[in-house]
Each structure stands twice: as C-alpha cells, then as structure tokens.
Design goal:
With about 200 residues, the protein is mostly helical. The chain folds into 2 domains: about 45 residues, no CATH class; about 150 residues, no CATH class. The protein has 9 helices and 2 strands; from the N terminus they run αββαααααααα. It has a two-stranded antiparallel ribbon with strand order 1-2. β1 and β2 form a beta hairpin. α3 runs antiparallel to α8.
Length: about 200
Amino acid sequence: MELNSRDIRKIRRNTKNTELNEINNIPSKFQYNNIKGENNMKIYYHMTLEDLKNKDRELLSNIKSNLPELEELLNDVNSDWYEDFIYRYYHHSWKVFDRQFIIRKIVKILEKIKPLNTSFCDMFIEDVVDIVIPEKEYNVQKYNRDWRKYAKPILDAFFYAKYFLEMTVKYGKELDGSPDVLPYGYAALATLYGIR
C-alpha cells in the first residue's frame, strides 16, 4: 500500500491511539523511507523489546565508530558556524541561506550513523531536512521581503540538527553500552531513528 503525506495526515487524525487500527489494518506510526522525504512512506510496525535493544546497541556502536568525525564536525559547528548563523539571521544577511551547507553536513553524518532498516522520524524530516532550500531555488529578493518567514525555519533547522549532533557526541563518550533507562538525550536520538 503506497501512501502520500496527505493520506498519512488523514490516517493520523483518525487514529486515536498507538495500537494498530485493526478494522482498517492501518498502523498508527509511519516513517519516511529515505532522507529526501519524497512522500514515499513505509509503514512502521512496532518492534519487539529485543529488536529495540538490538537497534539501541547498533546505534551506540555506530556512534562510537564515527565519534572522531562527529566530534570534529561538532567542534566546527561550535566554533564559527554557531555564531555566524545567528549573526547572519539578525543582520538580515542572505548568507543565512548560504550557510545551510552546515545543516546538510550534520544531516549527512546523522544518516551515516543510523541503524540498519531505520530512517529519520517524520518530525525531523519536516523540521530539518525539508527546510533546507536547494541553492538553485534561492530568490534573495523574495526572501528579503519576508525575511522571518524564510530565514527563521532555517535557523530552527540548524538548532535541531546541532542538538542531535551534540547528543551523539555526548552519549558516544558517556555510554559504554545500551542503558536500561535511557537518558533524555539518548532517548531523543532513539526517537530520531524511530526506535523509541
């Protein structure tokens, strides 16, 4: 059954709980099957407890094996890009749109560490991946006329992406194994990949 985003929203509105809707045979949770969010969605069935633990272990293992690259990117983001992004936004500089490459780099590395057969949750797709404007679509005059409408979502996307990058580095250093009780930041990472 192939569903588009309009179908998904309609199903979500009509589904009252997180259990499967047995009458319509439609689950209540969905995920995009790729990073581009091309309205190609796959049905996400609830995992068993053992599946969740395996995915948690895989996520932590992926984080640890990519930790030097994650740390390097976080250092870059925290050094110049963090201050620059905010300055460009408040200065009404079109370079806010030019600086989206850093969001793309963060998304790329978060994609690299995802466990097999998982994908970003739809909120991340909507709040971060779909917000980034391809360079060929820049329209500086249009964006400057309605600055906050176009620039603020990019700044928000940067903060969301930066948060998940920070959590990967933090828990890649702090955790030795998948914890029984998840710290909030690690639980957010698990939710990012649809394993919570």
